[in-house]
User: Fold these one by one.
Assistant:
Number 1:
Amino acid sequence: MRALFFSTVLFSLGIIGLAQEAADLISQADTLFLEVQSTGYTPEAHSILQEKIRQVISLYEQALAVDENNIHVLTELAHAYYVLADVFVDETKEEIKLHVKGQEYAERALRADPDFVAIEKKDGFIAAVKAHDNVAALFWTYANWARKIDLGGWKSLIAAAFRGDDKKLYAIMERCLELDPGFEYGGPMRALAAYWAKHPFRKDFDKTKDLLEQAMNDYPQYLENKLFYVQYYFMPKKMWAEAKAMLEEIIAAEQGEGDVLLQNGFAKVEAVELLEEVEKKLG
């Protein structure tokens, strides 16, 4: 009996120790991730910030090895892989590989919810999405999935439509809009605006315009909303003078404060590059 008692105690202490280890790793990762997001992106800071986001991913993955179904960790890994690919990697194949990884983690976060799994098994993925409440897991599933498709070019967009990926992506973003249109400073509005601008068979620039204007109105401090307006409305419509004016506005804007700093700094860098392209169109 005494041996059994001590074995039970040791087992319990082991579980507590693992839980504490995971909690410590998650806390370190959360703190470092917020630090990265709250640091203004510049080309000079690129390498340092890239190393930090890789450290974030390493910490979360160590935590996941201890607690494999932790929804917060899975979701933040999907988020971190998106940031690594979108901001810090220029080679297309490597970007796609990172977005594939991010999508896998985000879908694991969705399916860590037994209700999602049960509905998906019975009625399919879209039905499960429509009943799900974790806006972060949904959003980063969409973000990585859609970006992966977009990076593949027009053939990838057409193939995705024939597979029915567009219907699944639309369902995800419609659900995000229902749950929290302000997530990531208007992220669902930006994402759906890009969806309507890029769809190979059902473009709708009026919807793109309305969604982005709402995002800009609600979150004027987040410069990516304006950058998307240039990329997905002004440029496809060949409104070069308007594009130039808004890009100059982005470049001149305050960088902001808090967790917008990384993306605002990156938006400014992208705006400078786009401005050169737009000015060539203006002659």
Note: The domain at 182-283 is CATH 1.25.40 (Serine Threonine Protein Phosphatase 5, Tetratricopeptide repeat).
Number 2:
Amino acid sequence: MSRASFLLICAFLLNFSLTQAALAFIPVDTVLVIKSERMLYLKYEGEILRRYPVSLGPVPWGHKQQEGDERTPEGRYVLDYKNAGSRFYKSIRVSYPNLRDRLRAEELGVDPGGNIMIHGQPEGAEEGAQLFNWTDGCIAVSNEHMDEIWQLVTVGTPIEILP
């Protein structure tokens, strides 16, 4: 039995939910985003530890092709940088574009874009912003959820973004 399974069973038996403190003992080894579900999952050894609703760009379907297309990339990347001073509360950068993305963009004669982040809300955002796809291709969560993700995810964690 995995460590995550053991802790989840203990939490269930003791009738309490996994808090940030309890989750701190389980390393998140993968972040999964399923765009069609508008959900971000934190996983350990294949098991979902936490889930968060997300907002994407206004054109959420399809893989990001170029700068300004308002799409979120699809594929396997790495979370490679944390920015506590982001204008979107806090942010964690996705390593897009990778070599494959750059080669595809070069073939199309376009700029692949970049600076794709998981981030919180901009200052002054209205409550309910998570109900709409409003980013330029980033993955937005509430500030409260961003605080949890920030604590639980380390730089170097793989992220998979699926349609």
Note: The helical segments are 3-13, 20-23, 99-108, 143-152.
